[in-house]
Specification:
about 0% strand; about 60 residues; single chain
Length: about 60
């Protein structure tokens, strides 16, 4: 687990999760859906490197 958290894609993914929490809190505080929508789209973009890394590993494993 420690090795996973040291990887840049995993850190970006966790940052996206934190942004979702902040967006949910902001949505509750302001009564607007805009903060949550922005946080969710940012989290989706921040998870892309992790997904690419996982697909690359699967592709490399299937070549063996």
């Amino acid at each position: 687990m420690h090795h996973f958290l040291r990887q840049r894609p995993a850190q970006l993914y966790l940052l996206g999760l934190v942004l979702i929490l902040i967006g949910a809190w902001s949505m509750e505080a302001t009564g607007s859906f805009v903060p949550m929508a922005l946080a969710a789209s940012a989290a989706l973009m921040l998870s892309a490197p992790l997904v690419r890394q996982r697909f690359a590993r699967l592709k490399a494993a299937s070549r063996r």
